[in-house]
Amino acid sequence: MAAITRILLKLSGEALMGPDAFGYHGETMAGIVAQIKDVVELGTEVGIVVGGGNLFRGATGALAGMDRATADSMGMLATVMNALALKDALMAVGVPVRVQTAVTIAHVGEAFERDRAVRHLEAGRVVIFGGGTGNPFFTTDTAAALRGAEIGADLLLKATKVDGVYSADPMKHPQATRYERLTFDEAIARQLGVLDTAAFALCRDQKLPLAVFSIFKPGALKRVVLGEPEGTLVVL
Question: Where are the alpha helices (DSSP H) in 18-137?
Fold first, then answer.
């Protein structure tokens, strides 16, 4: 794979809450921020899409009887809250940050605009994309693939709780094996559920490589960016 100069990092909302059941866990947030700062200091341009599952999940609201479009809109607002929390944590350690949102909220963040986002990245600022895609019925995985393609990222990184893609759920099947490298077609044929279908198809069509790794493993993000063995790489 070619040298990596620009990445799009997908963080789940659940990652921000660590061992807690809701909200933010200070020690976990500090660990994530430290890893992001490490790759920024390498000179890597960093875009981030963050989920909202630590605050509200649209699909869960819909299951409880709420209209799905309304529930997804609430979920998008949760991702904006997480974008602001992550911005605050990064700025506290000296990392310059801008928040862009697909859901326009005056005085909270800039409205998403591709060219401006790219200029921020080129100037060394981390750009956090909140609000998902701005539309209901799409996951933040899809938002990450979309923003990654739009900003011309060299690599989409999905930060998870496990250290890569396995042949089965390693929490339920201890004998499951981890793949170091897969093609998109292999991942589809084996039904590995790396990303949701729309996000996966977009990555494949746009020839955007995908790395899956554990954000809870110290230094893992930096190792992926440097091309060292870490997690699972999915390519054409």
Answer: 26-41, 58-63, 68-92, 114-122
CA pair distance 195, 214, nearest whole angstrom: 15
- Cα pseudo-dihedral 16, 22, 26, 30, rounded to 10: 0
CA distances from 197 to 30, 44, 213 (A): 32, 28, 19
Give the pLDDT confidence of 52-99 residue by residue, as tens digits. Answer: 999 987 777 777 789 999 999 999 999 999 999 999 999 999 999 999
How far apart (Å, rounded) are the C-alpha atoms in residues 144 and 224?
A: 17
As given in the structure block, the two tokens for residue 42 are 């390498």
Which position has the higher pLDDT, 40 or 196?
Answer: 40
Contact 10, 212 (CB under 8 A): no
Q: What is the pTM of this model?
A: 0.95
CA distances from 235 to 53, 99, 148, 177 (A): 28, 29, 15, 19
Please list, in sequence order, all residues whose beta carbon lies within 8 angstroms of the beta carbon of residue 141, skipping any fewer than 6 positions away: 10, 158, 195, 196, 198, 199
pLDDT > 90? residue 188: no
Tell me which residue has tokens 């509200």. 56
pLDDT, residue 104, reads: 86
What domains can be seen in the chain, in order of their start residue?
6-162+195-235 (3.40.1160.10)
pLDDT level of residue 35 (50, 70, 90 thresholds): very high
